[in-house]
Structure formats: structure tokens, C-alpha cells
Amino acid sequence: MRLYVVIRYVGMILLLISAFMFVSFFISLYHNDDGLVPLLLSALLTFLTGVFPLIFVPVTKHLSSKEGYLVVVIGWIVVCLYSTLPYLLYGGEFTPVNAWFESVSGYTTTGSTILTDIEVVPHGILFWRSATHWMGGIGIVLFVLVVLPAMGNARITLSKIEMSPLAKTDFRYRTQKMLRIILSVYIGLTIVEAVLLMIFGMSAFDAVTHTFGTVATGGFSTKNASIGFYNSVAIETVIIVFMFLSGMHFGVLYTMFTFKNFKWYKSSVVRLFFFSILIGIILVTLSTKGNNYNSWDEALRYSAFQVVSIATTTGYATCNTTLWPSFSVMILIYFTFQCACAGSTAGGIKVDRFVIFFQSLKRQVLKLQHPQAVIPVKVDNVTIDDDTVDSVLLFIVLYILILFLTGLAITAMGVDATTAFTASAATISTVGPGFGEVGSASTFASIPDMGKILLTFNMLLGRLEIYGLLLFFMMKSWR
């Protein structure tokens, strides 16, 4: 294995990060705020670190699978480390642990925060914080693959590792076209939503930062009250629509927007995603009407926003869901597990795995009735091989096991069970808010430092789909 090749590609990723730091610096310069020096120093240090291996390491267009995995995993870790620099140099609430937590939460599009007063943070730092969402949502590695010249075998290797395997089951484009589709949809959603938010009353700065959080399904806001600050039905409706779109497979969105001959509405994944959210909204509306809200309009307004926000792992808030009835809370916890579709920016188990799980369950019941029958697992008339089915079932078991162990460890630190369990679920699903002390109207500031570090590991596991990070710790066993 050629470690110098890995270092070169990680350097490329750091150059991209430094570019966004420079943009954040100019925003800080425009507002003449306290983020000016921290962002400039961070950008220069990150740029110099990134450019160094490009000067001394020769160009290589071929990567082995092992090298590709190292680029992806080390790239994520190094980027998260360097992205703590603006926070650490600024100070305030950003202790080393808090800066690491905020950085990982940003890139993994989790949206959990340690900030108790967001609005005192300088504009440049807030823009940088939201920009980490946008870069992490598209996948920092995928973004580099698109913006850089053709890299031969390396492009194919890295794209296969960065993307979820489930994200490639329905759309088998060539690698270069697939990457362009992802980026064009991502940028298209970003531009359209930002314009609409400005039309409906947001400032340009708020529109861009909240768009970054929406399209990346992240949830970092520039306001303490999140989207509830604006108290605008129009703004909430725009964000609901774009949260839902960002939770869908980008290949599906591409066929929708380009009117390709693909009947996306017949996809069992899309149907489960849409109807589960619709049913969730109806049930939560019925539950909160009379208990929390006096009118049906008000109950529907807040229920729709929160259900879509949690189901797409965005995590924006317009109210304090901790005060909702237990029935509504349980529905939101369910969506914390299911989440959105593979091929989107969302985390969680994902709708695709739920579809395969239900089909596998159906097969098992049929086999009990007909032991000799050969019954394949099918999704939309496509046979899913047994290796994929086994991988899905193992993923779900690992997901629940990690969630339980993390929650158990945090309770050992003196945190109550509700807070510990939902904090664990919210971070591995990259949802953001949980319940209890980490609810939608609270932050993760009260979690002990060791708990925060553990939760960042959860975030990385969720973003890299568990296997990606676990393979990193088992590299000695590779052949």
C-alpha cells in the first residue's frame, strides 16, 4: 500500500476545505466581525498543508481498494480535525472537545450543536459552520472527484467507496455521468431554494446558510430558535418541500426534473418514503390537536414540519417537540430510525433497507408455509441477491447494537436514559435533535466531554454507513 498516494488525495480535499474557509473569511471581512483572524489563519494553514503533498508527491491515477478506503476514511477524519481550527481560534463556547463535536456534526450533516447562544457567533464562523454541512452532504470526496480533472481508475474506486451501495442499485450510470448527476441536482436544489427563501423574506446570508442545512439535510441554523425564529408559513413550506426532495434518491430527482422515461412514482422505496411521512403527519396532527395546539391549521403546520425534518434527518425545528404527547414522540423516534432514501444526503437505516427487510420478512413467512419453495426477495420486480439481503439485515442489527451500547455508556456518565438513548439515536442517524436534555429546543452542551466524543464516533459511523469505518480498524486482515 502506498501511503504517499493517500496523503496526496487527502491534500486535494484539504485544498477544497481551505477554499470555503477563504469564502467565510471574506464574509467575516464584509461584516467586520470577530471571525476575521481565526478564519484567515485557518484558511492559510489548511491551504499550506493541502498543497504540500501536491508539490512533492507524484500524480497517480490508479488506486487500490485499500488505498481508496484510506483516502475516504482518513479524508473525513483529517478534514474534521482541520475544520476545528476556526472554532478553536475564535474561542467562546468552543473548547477542543466542543470544536471537534461541532465540526464532525457539520460534516456528517448531523446538525447537533453545543452552542447555547448561536446568535452571538460572528457571521463568518456561522457561514463556515453551515458550509461544512454543504460539503459533507455532497460528500467531500465526491465533490473533489467532480471538480478535479479525470483521475482514471482513482475516480471509480473512490466513488464506489464514498457512496452507499444501496444508492447505486437503481441507476447504473457510468461513473463520470453519475457524479455529474449528483452534483447538478445538489447545486440546482441549493440555488432554487436560496432564491425562494430570499423571496419570502430571509436575508441573503440566512437564505444561503439555511439552504446549506436543508439540501444537506443537516440542520445548522443561524438562529437560537431555528426556523421557528421566522414564524413564517411560506418559509416553512419552502423548507418542507426541499427537505423532502433532498431526502430522495438524487437519481430519482434527476429523472423527475429531466422528464426521463422512468416511472419513479412506482418505486416501492419512493412510495414507502412518501406514505410513511404522510401517515406520520396525520397521526401527529391528530395527537397534538387539543393537547398542544388549538386549531387544526396550527397542529398540521407544526406536525408537518417536524415529521419531515426528522424523517429526512435535517433536524430543523419550529417548536419544542419534547412537550408533545408520548404518542407523537414515539412516531418521531420511529422516523429517527427509518429516515430517508439511499442516494440522498440523509443518514439512518434508510427506507431502502426497510423495504428489503419487509420483503425478507415476507419471504421467511412464506418459506414457513412452503419449506421446499424457492422464494427470492424482490423489490420492484428486481431480485435482490442473498448477499445484499444478509448485508442489510446485519447492518440493521449492528445499527441497533451500536445505538444501545452508546446509550448505555452515556447513562454511565450520569445522563438520564431518555437523553442518552435519543442522543445516541439522533447522532448515528445524523438526525440532530433527540429528546430530554437534547431536544429540539435544547443543545448537546450538557453532555459530558467523553459522551460528546463517543457521539462523534456515532456520527462518523452513521455517515460512513458503519462498514466503511469498521473496515478502517480491520485493515490488517485485508488481503
SSE inventory with pairings:
Elements: H1 3-31, H2 36-56, H3 65-82, H4 85-90, H5 96-107, H6 123-138, H7 140-147, H8 153-162, H9 175-199, H10 204-215, H11 233-246, H12 250-257, H13 268-288, H14 296-311, H15 326-338, H16 351-369, E1 377-379, E2 382-384, H17 386-411, H18 417-428, H19 449-463, H20 467-472
Antiparallel strand pairs: 1-2
Helix pairs in contact: 1-2, 1-3, 1-6, 3-5, 3-8, 5-6, 5-19, 6-7, 6-10, 7-9, 9-10, 9-11, 9-12, 11-14, 13-14, 13-15, 14-15, 16-17, 17-18, 17-19, 18-19
Structure description:
- The chain is mainly α and 479 residues long.
- Helix content is 64%, strand content 1%.
- The protein is built from 20 helices and two strands.
- The chain has helices at residues 3-31, 36-56, 65-82, 85-90, 96-107, 123-138, 140-147, 153-162, 175-199, 204-215, 233-246, 250-257, 268-288, 296-311, 326-338, 351-369, 386-411, 417-428, 449-463, 467-472; strands at 377-379, 382-384.
- Strands 1-2 form a two-stranded antiparallel sheet.
- A hairpin with a 2-residue loop joins strand 1 (377-379) and strand 2 (382-384).
- Helix 3 crosses helix 5, helix 5 (96-107) runs parallel beside helix 19 (449-463) and helix 7 crosses helix 9 (175-199).
- The radius of gyration is 22 Å and the shape is globular.
- The termini are close together.
- The model is unreliable at 146-163 and 168-172 (pLDDT under 50).
